[in-house]
Inverse folding.
């Protein structure tokens, strides 16, 4: 059998060793180049720290996911009470409350 057969086909560990060396070389190469690029960006434009954005409104609270309104809408949809018009009015009220609050 050829030595390229691999460990599972009786070829020994030489192919596995070559693959391990290749993985480590790619990892080291990627790390070093990423570090060099990060240093270049830091020198040219710099990285901003969180203190620079301390005064930005809304930073203290994540607003991308409003679970409270979603839970209310889910409860409203599951309740099945009222007419379609009442349901739409309630949804509008919840959305208006979300925008204002």
């Amino acid at each position: 059998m050829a030595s390229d057969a691999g460990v599972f086909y009786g070829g020994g560990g030489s192919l596995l060793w070559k693959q391990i060396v290749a993985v480590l070389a790619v990892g080291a190469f990627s790390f070093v180049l990423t570090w060099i690029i990060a240093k270049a960006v830091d020198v040219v434009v710099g990285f901003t720290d969180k203190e620079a954005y301390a005064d930005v409104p809304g930073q203290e609270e994540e607003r991308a996911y409003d679970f409270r309104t979603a839970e209310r809408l889910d409860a409203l949809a599951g309740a099945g009470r009222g007419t379609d018009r009442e349901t739409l009015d309630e949804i509008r009220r919840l959305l208006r409350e979300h925008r204002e609050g």
